[in-house]
Write a structure and sequence with these properties.
25% helix, globular, four-stranded antiparallel beta sheet, Alkaline Phosphatase, subunit A, 2 domains, alpha/beta
């Protein structure tokens, strides 16, 4: 039991990544405390897994069915929406307050966190100016929290959080900011999202030299953070709980669902400035992709069977689920597509619908996480020839999202304290994390 718990949400952290040589900080916590397997619930992507950890419920119940969703009423895809109201069910911050009203919670850079019940929140919210420029900024709670931090920390380095320049700088800022809040407010529960391992794993593969270097960098930052905490006002009265959100797998192939739908006459495009855009109003079906899965939204119920058959047997597609079949993978939710596609281990799914790169919309060659109907890891690759983002989807070497079917899909769960609240050796699910947190903070019952 502890009165101060720091939770580190680390996408891509696998069991084999925790060893004395590469990650002495994580290894030390695991050795002194508990080390266990963690299985993420499908879809194994950030927004879904974080919501499952917070609520203790799977995506089919909490409603976060991907990192984005499609609004059928206004025919619009919305990725990285940020608002907490999309999540159904009691969240961990509210459960803590209900059991220990004097306890406070903080959340750093989590997805769908804006307006959540945590007492302190900071997450990126850049301001897009009318002239097309972007101003660095973060949403914060309470009002004025981010402004208060700026004098000592400067702006959050958004350019190093995602895209071609992504790297350790964003991780370093998040941890320094979290320590600043510990000194100022000493929240009892601290949720910290650290996507450091994502970048190299997607660009070079999870077993690459670059991924190993990123892992070592992360552990060094954690060591510095833990040393600061130990020398700060809380001293040693802190427990760390670190969880891998999902595990990356090597990929060598790409599936293009929207191109297949277009070739079958189910997806329609319109021309704008010499570029092709999806015509959502005229399309019978289109795919919202997210790493190794796709939600296919079908406007005509009679076309669902045709869509299902179109993808069955397709190279790189391991599963096709339509209608009631979606319950087999836990995605029988009103926000889900009428058809769900799951990629095989060696493939991922790209949103592209054009057949000629010259017809690609302008935003395709930029870091633009909002206008694309799907997650785009190719944004990590800068093309010097075009001075923009490459359109070669085969550059991506690592992905995730498919259901856990083998041990290589499991991640690491580490607790720095030897406690009966988390016995070693067993396998946990992401839906168990909420109860683990409540147990460690003595908020059960």
């Amino acid at each position: 039991m502890t009165e101060h718990l720091i939770f580190l949400s680390v996408p891509g952290l696998r069991l084999g990544d925790v060893d004395r040589e590469k990650t002495p900080t994580l290894h030390g916590w695991a050795h002194d405390g508990a080390f266990a397997r963690l299985q993420p619930t499908f879809p194994c992507v950030t927004s879904c897994v974080q919501a499952s950890m917070w609520t203790g419920a799977p995506p089919g119940q909490h409603g976060v069915i991907a990192n984005g969703c499609y609004h059928r009423d206004r025919r619009e895809v919305e990725f990285w929406v940020g608002r907490n109201g999309v999540i159904a069910g009691e969240q961990v911050w509210n459960a803590i307050r209900a059991k220990q009203p004097e306890f406070t919670s903080a959340a750093w850079h989590a997805q769908n966190i804006k307006d959540a019940g945590a007492d302190f929140i900071v997450t990126p919210a850049p301001i897009h100016e009318p002239d097309g420029s972007m101003k660095l900024w973060c949403y914060s709670k309470p009002d004025g929290l981010y402004e208060e931090m700026l004098g000592q920390l400067g702006h959050f380095p958004l350019q190093h959080y995602w895209g071609p320049m992504a790297g350790i700088e964003s991780t370093r800022w998040i941890l320094r900011a979290a320590y600043w809040l510990l000194e100022e407010q000493a929240p009892n529960f601290h949720w910290i999202y650290l996507p450091q391992l994502d970048y190299a794993s997607q660009m070079y593969g999870p077993n690459s030299i670059e991924s190993r270097a990123a892992l070592i960098e992360l552990d060094l930052e954690l060591a510095e953070f833990a040393a600061d905490v130990a020398n700060g006002p809380l001293g040693e009265d802190v427990v760390y709980l670190a969880a891998g959100e999902y595990a990356m797998t090597d990929v060598s192939g790409v599936v293009y669902p929207n191109r297949m739908l277009r070739k079958a006459g189910l997806l329609k495009t319109r021309e704008e400035g010499g570029c092709e855009h999806i015509d959502f109003e005229r399309s019978t079906a289109f795919a919202m992709v997210d790493h190794q899965l796709a939600h296919i939204y079908v406007s005509d119920p009679s076309a669902v069977a045709k869509v299902r058959e179109l993808f069955r047997g397709t190279n790189g597609v391991a599963g096709v689920y339509a209608g009631d079949e979606r319950s087999e993978v836990g995605l029988d939710h009103k926000r889900s597509g009428e058809v769900i596609l799951i990629a095989g281990d060696t493939h991922w799914m790209a949103y592209y619908w054009w057949f000629d790169d010259a017809a690609a919309p302008a935003f395709a060659r930029t870091v633009d996480i909002h206008r694309k109907p799907g997650y785009d890891p190719v944004e990590l690759f800068f093309d010097p020839a075009t001075k923009g983002i490459s359109l070669d989807a085969t550059l991506v070497k690592g992905s995730h999202g498919a259901p856990v079917s083998e041990s290589k899909h499991e991640t690491a769960l580490i607790c720095s304290a030897d406690t009966p609240s988390m016995p070693s050796g067993r396998t946990y699910r992401d839906t168990d994390v909420k109860d683990l947190v409540l147990g460690l903070l003595d908020c059960e019952g």
